[in-house]
User: Which sequence fits this backbone?
């Protein structure tokens, strides 16, 4: 076991930490094909965006009814991986919706699955955490490791290995065979945090006993923040770190030596999430309001409060896609016009872009692939 400087650990005593990490040059960014959705937010920058354009109206290409409620969805290399709350995980062919493989797990995964190249990783919450590596195309298990910690908090897969946060430590594993490579044991219990990569460094945004802040394993001390981060962080095209506080204010950090600066004042609702294209940021409130913020701080109200939204927006091309808690999928232009509304029988839990189509995971376990309208009817597939 290896430990970083004792001075750093002492500084981190009151903190809530996250973990895991990769980086563009420091740790290595996950590799994948175009249209991949390797983790929450799409990739390590957590931008909730893509350059591909989705043409409306949309119709179903296929529908699959899973046997349990959704926990997480990721997709890569033609396989969509669905994790359910009742310990099931399965791989679907993204073109047909047909099941390719499935597993009945000993417990629910502690975080959404993580993909790197053709490997799928799971952290299973048991008295001794189990770390699994599956072969993405056929679901066969490559290896399983027992971790002497409980309550895994977060999992990230990169070209440089697997990063796992537990209730005690941040652990770095070899992704090929599960060998433990490094370990940090900060005193203090990890509770709530988010992770992104910034300038080749792993950046944690956390909430702890003394307040909220940013921290990287390579920093001598954390950067304390005003307010409580609730959405993000993501990395803009100009490599600025951006996040939204619980009061709806939007913040930007140019570099680790600078002070965070306010990009948008507090709103009248907590954020549901943020997305960025280039250096422009879209802030979606939980009341359904949508604000587009320019790098200068100029803000345009694209949508007033209309309906409860709990999931982050998805910004594709010139359209920002929103999923409402009552079940509608909405496309809003960057000029503020609602150009498309697609009614759904159940509220979407996740929205994933896949090569010109949208993959939706609904709260009742239904999986849908929506593509630009064709005359073909959608096949309905069910689990046994």
Assistant:
């Amino acid at each position: 076991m290896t430990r970083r400087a004792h001075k750093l650990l002492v500084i981190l005593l009151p903190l809530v930490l996250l973990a895991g990490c990769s980086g563009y040059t420091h740790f290595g960014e996950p590799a994948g094909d175009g249209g991949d959705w390797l983790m929450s937010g799409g990739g390590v920058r957590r931008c909730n965006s893509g350059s591909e354009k989705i043409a409306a109206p949309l119709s179903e290409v296929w529908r699959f009814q899973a046997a349990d409620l959704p926990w997480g969805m990721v997709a890569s290399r033609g396989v969509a991986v669905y994790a359910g709350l009742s310990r099931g995980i399965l791989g679907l062919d993204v073109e047909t919706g047909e099941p390719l493989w499935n597993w009945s797990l000993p417990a629910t995964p502690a975080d959404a699955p993580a993909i790197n190249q053709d490997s799928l990783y799971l952290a299973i919450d048991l008295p001794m955490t189990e770390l699994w590596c599956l072969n993405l195309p056929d679901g066969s298990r490559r290896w399983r490791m027992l971790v002497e910690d409980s309550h895994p908090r977060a999992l990230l897969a990169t070209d440089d290995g697997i990063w796992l946060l537990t209730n005690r430590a941040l652990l770095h594993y070899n992704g090929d065979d599960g060998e433990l490579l490094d370990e940090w044991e900060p005193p203090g219990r990890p509770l709530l945090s988010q992770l992104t990569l910034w300038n080749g460094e792993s950046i944690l945004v956390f909430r702890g006993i003394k307040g909220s802040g940013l921290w990287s394993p390579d920093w001598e001390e954390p950067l304390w923040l005003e307010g409580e981060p609730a959405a993000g962080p993501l990395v803009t095209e100009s490599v600025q770190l951006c996040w939204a506080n619980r009061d709806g204010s939007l913040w930007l950090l140019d570099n680790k030596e600078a002070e965070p600066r306010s990009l948008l004042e507090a709103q009248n609702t907590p954020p549901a999430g943020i997305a960025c294209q280039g250096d422009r940021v879209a802030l979606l409130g939980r009341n359904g309001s949508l604000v587009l913020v320019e790098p200068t701080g100029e803000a345009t109200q694209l949508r007033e409060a209309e309906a409860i939204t709990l999931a982050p927006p998805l910004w594709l091309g010139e359209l920002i896609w929103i999923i409402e808690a009552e079940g509608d999928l909405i496309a809003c232009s960057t000029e503020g016009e609602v150009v498309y509304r697609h009614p759904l029988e159940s509220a979407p839990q996740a929205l994933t872009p896949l090569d010109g189509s949208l993959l939706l995971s609904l709260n009742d376990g239904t999986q849908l692939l929506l593509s630009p309208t064709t005359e073909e009817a959608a096949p309905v597939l069910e689990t046994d």
User: Anything to note?
Assistant: Confidence is low (pLDDT under 50) at residues 1-34, 377-384. The radius of gyration is 20 Å.
